[in-house]
Amino acid sequence: MRAPRLDVDALLDDPTTGIIVCCGSGGVGKTTTSAALALRAAERGRKVVVLTIDPARRLAQSMGIERLDNTPRPVSGVQGPGSLDAMMLDMKRTFDEVVESQASPEKAKQILENPFYIALSSSFAGTQEYMAMEKLGQVHRQARAEGTHDLIVVDTPPSRSALDFLDAPERLSSFLDGRFIRLLLAPARGPARLMTAGLSVVTGALTKVLGAQVLRDMQTFVAAFDTLFGGFRQRADTTFALLQADGTAFLVVAAPEPDALREADYFVDRLTDDGMPLAGLVVNRATPKPFADLSAEEAIAVADRLRERDPASLTAGMLRLHADRVRMVEREARLRERFAVAHPRVPTAVVPAMATDVHDLTGLREIGRLLAADLVDP
Known about the structure:
Elements: H1 8-13, E1 19-23, H2 30-43, E2 47-52, H3 58-62, E3 73-74, E4 83-88, H4 91-102, H5 105-112, H6 115-123, H7 127-146, E5 151-155, H8 164-176, H9 179-189, H10 191-194, H11 197-210, H12 212-244, E6 248-254, H13 258-273, E7 278-286, H14 296-309, H15 314-342, E8 348-352, H16 361-373
Parallel strand pairs: 1-5, 1-6, 2-4, 2-5, 6-7, 7-8
Antiparallel strand pairs: 3-4
Helix pairs in contact: 2-16, 4-5, 4-7, 7-8, 7-12, 8-12, 9-12, 11-12, 13-15, 14-15
């Protein structure tokens, strides 16, 4: 079964498309896809900012920028009427900005200097994913207020699970609103009334496990942070609604491998269940179809006959390589067909593997062209 073709240029040119989210499992080329889409959109006239969460910092190198941080940096060398800025999520800095915007200077200082907050903002599971959504909300609000950008391309965090990006706000909110946190907060709210014998036993046990100083740091943090909690949940809900709104488009990125396409299958189901606007699937690094119209069996048969005459025949070796490539192309086509049967309405773009790594704008431009051309028959 042939999947419908993903019209990448139509998606990029549509003025109602304001956010494109590239998601999928790790190592499938989300960062490259995001950058290539952003560059192509800019060269077709859009005012674009690409937000990446890329620990390898390849995006900065490929765009000729010395460094990326929490601030959009202009990318030079764009060939067209649009503009392109790039930025990289600074997880802790984004968390700090939220605290500073929501609290008084004194309260913000108390939170920012708290050891438990420092650990939470730097390494707590889910914080990176939550802050990616927070930064997306910030950039979107600024773009609408100032007219700086009309398209935001988001490279989602690398994660073990496709659910992390969508679940992070609720997970972090649940943690901050959970029984354990409320237990820690209770003494700060009213020790005379709430510090019962049972609570004393629990906090005594926690002190033995965590240490008195750690427990005090946690209690101090929670007491200070409690007034900000409603703002965090509200902002998370607002950004989640933004992801569901018209004008947002999700692209699931995968490699032509069983595990990656199984993850993509799972992600498509989850996006559909959550009412997220799914634009299509991008299959990266597909094996290019050989130029010669010769089946694997025919190539092997000819190679065997040549080897009988000349065991060192170079032509026979090349024919065997041709057969291997044909079989790889057929294997990948079967995997994509299996996905298309499960999701017959998901448009697909297939990008052939490049001969070399992408390390500059020329490479990103070529990836964008291949995305739009869809040269590999899906």
